[in-house]
Every structure is written in structure tokens, then in C-alpha cells.
Amino acid sequence: MSQEARPLTKGERTRSTILRHAAASFRRSGYDATTVASIAQEIGISDATVFQHFGTKSGLLGAVMEEFYAGMYTTALDIANSPGDAQVRFRQLIDAWALRAERDWDLIRVFTQRARYSTDIELDTQWKGLNRRYTRIHIDLILELQEQGILNDQVPASLIRDIVFGAIEHIALRPDSSGPIEVRHRAKQVIDALVAHRVSDLEIKGRLDRIDAKLDAALGRTESSEGSDRSRGDGKVGDLAVEHPN
User: Does the predicted model carry a pTM greater than 0.90?
Assistant: First the structure.
């Protein structure tokens, strides 16, 4: 019998509520326009309570980021460890990230811009660590696909990862006044482009192997026929003439 989940303490419930409202505020207003005071007022608590749990506004953003990546990591790990074809799992992995990009890009952009372009070294270090942990799952699957010949094994797995994530980020950042961005559809096209030439190579090799097998069979029949003709002394050869190199 599984042990029932422990009920949350009052402090844990308060922390969870702050994180939820902070994530919504960062997504809606960005980092600079979000204030601890506005979050506290929205919840009905004091500013001091927020600072007591998270220290600073940057610490609050870091906690929101930690929770966000924890959810993505769990989903990615479940997909990567599921049974089945590696390419299917890789596509599902990228689709899961693209779906988050479609739904939560406003929040993801706050993470990346604040970590990349601010002087907050601690937040930048935290963001890079979370990204490395998350994308390590992708690199492991890329290596598996390279071993199978699905992806080019002459290209570093980290570069393939960067191509995929860089393309998705570019797509998500591109303004589109005609409607919502279709990150998932474009991400699928990126994967199609990466695997297409390798699949074509494999198909060509398969066709060449089949041709070689047919030629070997034909040569075997020809040689057998020539041997039979020589034994009769009639000088005839088989229907298929194949010239052997000296």
C-alpha cells in the first residue's frame, strides 16, 4: 500500500501560492514591471512574507524558474525512458519542449533575458545549470540516433542540440501578426530536415544492397550456365552477360 502524501504545512502552502502568482505576474508584465509589493497585495500578504520565503525578487524569479524546469525535466525523463523507437521518443521530446514554448514563451523569455543580459551572476549560473540538466536528456537520445545512423555522427551531439533549440527559440521570438505562433509544427520541420538526408542515405544503401544481391544471384546463374555449356561444348552463355574486371 502506497503511503499517502503528507499534507502541506501553512508555510508550504504560502510559498506555493506566492510562486503561482509570481509566475503569472512575470509572464504578464515581465521582470522589471513586476514588484514584490504587487504580488503580496494580490495574495493578501505582507511584502515581508515574500522576502522571508525568497530573499529578493531575483530569488523569487529563480524559484519560479526552478519549479518550471523541474516539471519539464520530469516530463522529458518519462519520454526518454519510455520503450519504443529512439526517433519517435526524440520527436516527442522536442514536441514537448515546443509545446511549452507555444504556451509559456512569455515566461521563458523572462528567464533567458534576465539570466543572459543582467548582471545577476547567481541567476545566470542557476539558469545554465537547469538548462544543462534538461538538455542532457536530449543529447543522450541524439547520441543514440547517431549510433543508429539516423543523425549524422560527424556532427557533435551538442551542436545538433543547439541547432534544434536555437531554431525553436528563433521561431518563438519571431513576431507574427497573422495569428499564434506554430512552434510545434516548425519544430517538427526542423527534425525532418535533420533526419531526411540520413534516412535517404540509408534508403539508397538498402537499394544498392538489393541490387548487389540481385547481381550476385545473376552472376551465379550465369557462371552455372557457362559451366554447363562448356561441358556440352556448344560455346553458349547465359542470357545475362556481365563482364568481370581483370
Answer: no
